[in-house]
UniProtKB/TrEMBL annotation:
This is Putative short-chain collagen C4-like. Residues 86-106, 132-186 are annotated as: Disordered. PANTHER family: PULMONARY SURFACTANT-ASSOCIATED PROTEIN A, SHORT-CHAIN COLLAGEN C4-LIKE. Residues 141-162 have a biased composition (Basic and acidic residues). Keywords: Collagen, Signal. InterPro entries: Ca-dependent_lectin. Residues 1-18 form the signal peptide. One of its GO terms (cellular component) is collagen trimer. Residues 169-186 have a biased composition (Polar residues).
Amino acid sequence: MDTLWCLILLQVVSASYASLDGDVNPVLKEGSLNVMDILKQKSLGHDLYGRKRNCHSESAVLELQNTVEDLKGRLDTAEKFLWAENGNGRRTRRSSGQDLPTSGCTPGAVGCPDAYTPYFMGQCFLCPPGPAGAQGPPGSEGERGRDGRDGRDGDRGPKGDNGDCESASVASNNQQSFTGSSPTSNNTGVIYVRWGRSECPVTSELVYSGVAGGEHYSHKGGASNYLCLPQEPIYDEPEATAHSDRGYLYGSEYQTNAYPPYAHLHDSEVPCAVCKAAQRSSYIMVPARNACPGSEWTLEYFGHLMSAYHNHRKTEFVCMDRNAEAIPRTVENANGALFYPVEGRCSSSGGIPCGPYVNGYELTCVFVLCNVVVLPININTKL
């Protein structure tokens, strides 16, 4: 039993010694090792000098008790020393911020080293964000987005220079612009009347065909120009009875029995056609010529000058097509607005110069278009 008691004491002391951490004072640690040597020797029945002793002897038991008491005292001292050392070290580290996480913290913020609060739970929170990290690798390409809306219209550009056809009658505010329906999508161009025919040349488009009309040749008033009347008029609140306080508009006839090129048309009504030359900038009727004035022009048609009779009321000069036609079944001699061939009157004393002009010769005419093409302008396109 004594031997068993010795072994139990040895085990208790060994366990107590093992509980000491590595921060114990080296002197105390060395003393503890000496005590352990003594206990081992006592448990094996030897004294400090290596002589065998009996663990059952009373002296041995007393010596062992004294040794244990001494060892307990040393252990108590070591424990107090360790507690003191650990407490001072932690206070020192805490005051310097070594025990608190500082990543991403700014001193003085809640949860940071200089403002240790009960809200600190092992990591910094309620602190300012840390510095931005390094840029990551580029991501994969996304899907193609939808097309955006059309941009706003740009400012109108400056006015361009005049073209090569400055001498021509340019289609402008004093010329009718074609805005009706058309076989083409382009509404730019010039409008003119082809007298004596109901169709247009191949270089132009037919706007409408009709019959020539004007004021009666014997009337003093009224209008002086010829009109190309459409075949189907549209009225707006007309009165059924005739009135004397009106201007009058009559049909027209050829008065050409004395001029062979048109003699077969005498007393017949005169057809006409309103034509559109697309993408052309200007046109001109050239009297006393039946050919183009230059390479920059395109011939539409040619013929002879005609107007009212010299002793009737004034009208206007028009270019009657050389291949003029008659409106069928209209040979009635109803008069109205009349078309007579025009001949020149020259004089050596002034007026039309004789030499190039011959007195009494019927005058020709030609209707031409400028070759300069006018491109359509999209108002939504920036120039």
